[in-house]
Structures
1.
Amino acid sequence: ELPVDENGLVSGDDVRAGLRDDTILVAVMWANNETGVIHPMDEIVQAVADHQAFLFSDATQAAGKVPVSMDGVDLLACSAHKFYGPKGAGALLIRTQSPPIRLPKLLHGGAQESGRRSGTLNVPGIVGMGAAAQIASERLEKDAAAMRSRRDRFEQGLLEIFPEAFVNGAGAERLPQTSNVSFPGVKAGDMISEIGRLAVSTGSACASGSGAPSHVLSAMGLTKEQAQGTVRFSMGRHTTDDEVDSALELLGAYARRHGLVSAPSTL
């Protein structure tokens, strides 16, 4: 387990310091799914290469949002639904350069998936994922610029409504669509339930409902109360300016009802 700084970043130096003589694999997510913080993969790739270990990166949150490369990465995972492909389809990319990577079979039986996972191939899912990846690649710069612009405008408006709120990971490079915001004195779950009309979350989808503070935010130095007052907002390819304004209006109304700030009635 590697340490992170106040922005949730894993540095190349931390990776290098954490490597042991018996380390054969390093696993680092490309971008964090809660905060959107993008790790310095060039630094990490170099640190792992100098040690001659293997590098696996979970790029599920990054693929389709920012450029992702296999350069220096041995194994990379991504999921189709994260870039508007079909749910239930994913990919594990394995570098082909020497020396070869030999993985044990996940399921035994037929020779599908290069002998690693037996069972009838999900052809519609595979084709759909490929098509979605092609579209995402073609639209990458345009979509990222639009989402980043709306995210920044949303954060600016949000911090005007809640002056004591803060954006987690704001000091690092982030995915263009993600805002992870802590609201001091607010219970995030209660806030989400009361507002109702916003499809937002208190953490990652795989950990929602656990009741425990986010381990990501805790590692960044947030207190239990701060972590429990945190909401993750996400933009998408189809998010509009009007929807951003509507979200700010709903949040402003919540702030006024609870006397958190003298927020204006229209934004």
2.
Amino acid sequence: EYQLFEREVISDVSFGPKNFGLSEEEAKKEAEKAIDLVGLGPSYYHRSPFELSGGEKRRVAIAGILALEPDVLILDEPTAGLDPQGEKDMMALFKQIYQSGKSVIIVTHNMELVLKYCQKAVVMDHGEIYKVGTPLEIFQDKVLLDKTAIEPPEVFKVALKLIEAGLPISLKNVSDIDSLVEEIEKVKRK
């Protein structure tokens, strides 16, 4: 969101497409589409990006990238500084972008996000790829966790403790507290 510089959101988002050779009209169309996609809509087109909240600025910055129609979106700590609802909304946006056929790569230290939203995780250690796997594979690898000091999400640790205590829940279905409760209720119903 620190890359915003135009007077209006629509101008900021259409800047990239214009620089890639689109006409003013085509760039504006792409910008409107991208602004709508990130959940801001027409009421934001003519607002100043400098008067928006942090989460709104981040959405405008992402719209600026989406207006370029990339096949791959790489995001570094995209939910940092957002409140829980803002984080949830942002991750729902990335899921929507992924479902539209684009690749979404998120660089994060937030293991709760990794567990809840990621299909695959790449663990880096000293600039090298250490392991590629599902979040479940990563969080169950005690050697990896010790070597890299990755701390699994609390809900995952609680689920492991419940399994150790004899509760036959399925770790593959646990991604957040609600899904853990659901797993416990399934076991109780049996």
